[in-house]
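## retry 2 of 3
previous attempt timed out at serialization; input unchanged, resubmitting
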Amino acid sequence: MELTSLKGIGEKTAGAFKRLGISCVSDLCTYYPREYEAYSVPMPLYELRPGSIGVVEGTLSKDATLNRFNGLTIVNAYLSDMTGRLQLSWYNIPYIKSNLKAGSRYVFRGRVYEKNGRLIMSQPKMYSPEDYRERFEGRLIPVYPLTKGVNNNLLIKAVGEALKTEDLASYEYLGDNMLEKADLMPENEALIRIHFPRSNKELMNARRRIAFDEFFMFLLAGARLRERVKATRSNYKCRPEFRMINFIAGLPFELTKGQSDAYKAIVHDLNSGNVMNRLIEGDVGSGKTIVAVLALMYMAFNGYQGALMAPTEVLARQHAETIMKLFNAQGINLTVALITGSMTAKEKETAYEHIKNGDAQIIIGTHALFQDKVEYKSLGLIVTDEQHRFGVAQREALSQKGEMPHTLIMSATPIPRTLAIILYGDIDVSVIDVLPEGRMPIKNCVVNADYRERAYKFINDEIEKGHQAYVVCPAIEAEDEEEGAGGNLENVLDYAKKLSTALKGRRVAYLHGQMKGAEKDDIMMRFKEGEIDVLVSTTVIEVGVDVPNATVMMIENAERFGLAQLHQLRGRVGRGKAQSYCIMINTSDTEKAAERLDILNKSNDGFFIAEEDLRLRGPGDLFGVRQSGEMVFNLADIYSDKEVLEKAKETVAAVLGEDPGLTMDIHSRIRLRLDNYMDNGYTV
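## retry succeeded, writing output
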């Protein structure tokens, strides 16, 4: 159903919604809040704590005052109750002064901080006591990711209309017995309560159901692919290839034990006669790419083609350049073809011809690799870089261009083994857990916002030495202050301007996920070529090009990210011979945030960090932080939802044990949901 069918949404608003990935009414139903604002019963002033969001009720002791300082207008007022006194401050909202008269009684809600030994509530929202109790008290208000032209109030109204309009009962695909056995709430109720919960318990139950659905489809789709692989003997059996020995000996570096063991396991798989389905799991910077290159070469020397699919065009080009450089250095007579969306029609046609007639033995590209026009002569191996970035339909489309080719998956996300067993099931796993020689450990520091000016100076000093820096922000643009939680986040667009002023004469650029692909690729390539000194970005750089000259990673609002993702971001530096640094700005005053970030501060070991992340996760972390960098689930998190993941695995096993082909009528809705899941390219 079209968005414009909903009350209050015209063509212009529908266009703004599309920037958020919302194209129809059903998309709105599954556009989940990023967090919730709890509107609690007002507390006594003496219970307020720095760093928290508080709700207080009291009487203004005198009229508010207005002062001007450095271009800012600051309104101050003082609230009293029987337990104490609190300063209230508003910035650049001068008109609010007229409402703040001595003797007035209000409820205020806002974030509290400490300055010179006294507590101050900054930018609080103001309510009459009657209005607060009637409309807000005891409620959890959803807060959504936003974009220009769409504020939080608009989204709340639109989602409410969508939930009334959509036939939610038709979404259910699990039978009553399954729901009861897995202790799940019905899907239609979960969709309503994930947006508009009436209590924390109701919210947790709704979230549990939706997380279960995401895991269930993920595991079911993976099982379908694995069963097809297991049942098939390989058409691309290889034989020992001794030219590889000379090539490895001639590399400008020595393989680590992890790299060598992974390569030997791949060779064993390729020679076995069975279809290989192997994952190489290695920490950031551990050298997975060279193992993939060796696998592609091994196939090519055996007379078969190999394709490497990268998540971005810039990364695909980098892989192609790396491989050709290695080949040229040793006179290896293998042809590498590159296929990307931005190539000219003539360039593509030439590449297509080389691939079709077998002249190109190694093919590197993005999603363009599985377009209908690309025909392979003998596609024997598919290497997927960061497999969670590609949907099932995309991976299937590429595999169907060969006759069940071997599959090699590379992931830089270290996942605890307890979870890897569930997620990867029958996939064989090789772990590269030692960094190549010559890599200097990254020096880390976790600091508060007061350190920013010194951080800017440090970045400037690194640029003076000829190096570059990344700055990561959690938001793209500033959100309306009225939307609450989002207003405290640093955003890419404003930060790039601020940094350009602070670092006069330095070349500052920005990057975010809503930019067009060609524009993103151009910026990343310019950064790689040294034409940009500082790149201000969202987490879109998490899987980026290798820029050995970048030595500083500064992460704003670091407490807003999961540890796994912070570790991925940190891995963008430390790739050259110069000492690299990671500066994490912690804007939270909570002990839990400090404890989490201290793990990263003390360790560069991704596997240790993953285990610690699993240990620290709890229900209180479910919202307000993007927990994991490793899987692109909409809501589920493999750490916090470990128990739900295990329950989903049990349910998948029970369903397939009873009905492997999902042919029984009782499983018809599951089959339809799975087909839709895979057709739409959801991640697996």
